[in-house]
Amino acid sequence: MSSTNQAQKTIKALNSTHKIVHVTELATLGKLPQLREKSEAAVSYYETILKSLRWVRETMHNGKNQTATEKNVTAIAVTSERGLCGAYNSDVFSKINQLIESLGDQVTINWVVIGEQGHRYLTKLGQNITAYLQVSLENIDLETTTAITADFIDQINSQQMDALYVVFTKYFNAVHSEAMYEKIYPDIPEEEGLKPIEVDYVLDYEEDDEQVEQLLLENYLCGLLYSMFRYSVASEYCMRRIAMKQAKDNIQKQLDEAIFDARKKSLQQKTSELLDIISGAQTIRKEEE
Fold first, then answer.
1. Which of 46, 83, 233, 283 is most buried, taking the most CB atoms under 10 A from its CB?
2. CATH number at residue 147
3. How does pLDDT run across 21-58, given as a tens digit for each residue?
4. Closest CA to 88 of 198, 150, 167, 11
5. Whole domain around residue 74: which residue ranges?
6. Same structural domain for residues 256 and 167?
7. Are residues 210 and 108 in the same domain?
8. How many structural domains are present in the chain?
């Protein structure tokens, strides 16, 4: 009897866990379209700013020396605040290792970390963490991103930062995300086959060329970072959904096995009871004869 009760408890617990995991999977899947929409809106914004930034750099002045040696580098590591998202964090950790190796020992890397998982990993590696944003990535809004970008602009102006890298996870669709790192300053992406800009007019404005470029650069970096944050959130939910799907399938398999074992034991018990009855009836009949 105790074996039957234990089997029933196991089945009940598995059913309950299966429902929780399934609800989590559906909730995660439901957020992906909205997160992707925000990411694409940010991409559209910074691409528009990028066109203006290219125009300023090519028509107003040559800008700063883009081939300067990188000695002080700032790198942003975007990870999750919690686990249960499959290989999301481990893929980011792999890209962190690649970035550290590619920059070499002669470069000082100042890490800005988002997510407890990344903070733990970089601390374990003994890396220099200059800022740890103890806020859920999902809660980072445009205002927060603007403040983060302003700090980077201050570092650029004070020549404390030679380059800016971001380690994040790019969201492609509900089943595909990819961890990567990108250098977003001082380089800006160039359009392939872009023709030289020719103008036959002069713009009249009060600000210096450098001030105009800096304003555009700040807005460009802000939009780019915000899109990367949104893509990382979407990727985290994507990986969590996949992890929940795998967990749900595993629980379903255990549940099926538990139900099968319970039915098998119940059938064996009934068979045993029936055999006892038959055996008892045969014994009584022999005694009567």
1. 233
2. 3.40.1380.10
3. 666 665 666 666 676 676 677 667 667 777 767 766 66
4. 167
5. 25-191+206-242
6. no
7. yes
8. 2
Q: Are residues 7 and 124 in the same domain?
A: no
113 part of a folded domain: yes
Residue 197 belongs to some domain of the structure: no
Q: At residue 62, does pLDDT exceed 80?
A: no
